[in-house]
Amino acid sequence: MIEARAWLEKIHALEFDRTVKIMNVCGGHERSITQAGLRGALPKWVELVPGPGCPVCVCPEEDVYQAMQLALRDRVILVAFGDMLRVPVNVKKGEVRSLAEAQAAGADVRPIASPLDARKIALENPDRPVVFFAAGFETTTAPVAAMLAEGIPGNLSILLSGRLTWPAVAMLLGTFESSPGSPGFDALVAPGHVSTVMGPEEWAFVVDRHEIPAAVAGFAPESLLASFYSVLRQLKTGERFLDNCYREVAHPGGNPTGRRLLDETLAIVDANWRGIGIIPNSGYALKPTFAKHDARLLFPDHADADSNQPGRRRAGEMPPG
């Protein structure tokens, strides 16, 4: 394996007379880039542009608000991945703004690390409704699909806020097909963990349709720098291809079992992204077969102040008004 220092030397050996912008889609990539200090190590003509790659950041306010209200008003046990607890919503001054504040106000909110933790809590509390607020991209949504397929306790329901990553990039690139200008980046580094589930070839459209260099990267500095060198070299030579710089984990076709379980349990729907808006076919919703575990159908829609009836809004739909 080529070490990070060697990849940096190869990158510095390239020469560009302009700024080259590389967009990294994944929030995990952004964290690794920052922790390793890669921005400061790269040539000044390389600019790394963070993309829409954090499922916590793009989770719409109405979903966070719904989860808070289920815990506060419907008195469910609300479980969620720990990084969702501090995500704020815009409410009146003095009102509860996050799941962490709801927890402090007496709501039974519990951070978990795995969907299996949600199942365990439901089994341990058979007389109480348990709602799993499941926000995430394909990587974390696939285990939720697996849990549904295997069967879950009757008192456990899912408030799903799952998103697919590629439609956001496709929307960004599609915007510039019909208008002058550029998409704001010269090359793309695609997410490694998503590619592990869905397959690296899911990102081939970036090259095939838009002729933009692309590479799938892992999270170690060596893999990220290899992907940067790949797309920079493509720009330099005029080549265009999808390079897989995470071959030890991201294999062609992805994870067949994970993809099958996603297809069996979840439907793809239009979905709202916080700060972006509705993106067609970019969200997951439980299929009708699993309606008895769909928290959106079982509980009132608290985003609609006039509604006291469950099932008023499907996943991805904006609240009225």
CATH superfamily of the largest domain: HypD, alpha/beta domain 2
CATH class of the largest domain: Alpha Beta
Shape: elongated
For the biggest β-sheet, the strand order reads 2-1-7-8-9
SSE run: HEHHEHHEHEHEHEHEHHEHEHEEH
Tell how many strands the DSSP assignment holds.
11
Backbone CA Rg: 21 Å
Number of helical regions: 14
CATH topology (fold) name of the largest domain: Rossmann fold
Helical percent range? Answer: 25-40%
SSE inventory with pairings:
Blueprint: H1 4-13, E1 20-24, H2 27-36, H3 38-41, E2 46-50, H4 55-58, H5 61-72, E3 77-81, H6 99-104, E4 109-112, H7 115-124, E5 130-136, H8 138-150, E6 156-162, H9 166-175, E7 187-191, H10 192-198, H11 204-208, E8 214-217, H12 221-237, E9 242-245, H13 256-265, E10 266-273, E11 277-286, H14 295-298
Helix pairs in contact: 1-12, 8-13
